[in-house]
Design goal:
Pfam families: NikA-like. The protein is mostly helical and 88 residues long. The chain has helices spanning 3-11, 22-46, 57-81.
Length: 88
């Protein structure tokens, strides 16, 4: 919506509804936290931290796979963040 249209509709008393789905924003924040934790685990392993000495290749590959799946999940949620204009 253009700024002129927005100002015209507000001045005429029309209710302007938001286009952001706050539930999806909350879900996106949760997913972002998950990505941060997984990234932290990967960083510990890459820095040869003593706490990750027992991590084998399969564990690291599982973490990388989980990061990729979480990124895909984040992408799906991001497409739902802004509701289609037909719902306004």
């Amino acid at each position: 919506m253009s700024a002129a249209r927005y100002l015209r509709e507000v001045s005429q008393g029309y209710h302007i509804s938001g286009v952001v789905d706050y539930e999806q924003v909350r879900e996106l924040a949760r997913i972002n936290g998950d990505l941060g934790r997984l990234g932290g685990l990967l960083k510990l392993w890459l820095t040869d931290d003593v706490r990750t000495a027992q991590f084998g290749q399969s564990t690291i590959l599982a973490v990388l796979s989980k990061i990729e799946a979480t990124q895909e999940e984040m992408g799906k949620v991001m497409t739902k963040i802004v509701m289609p204009r037909s719902e306004l």
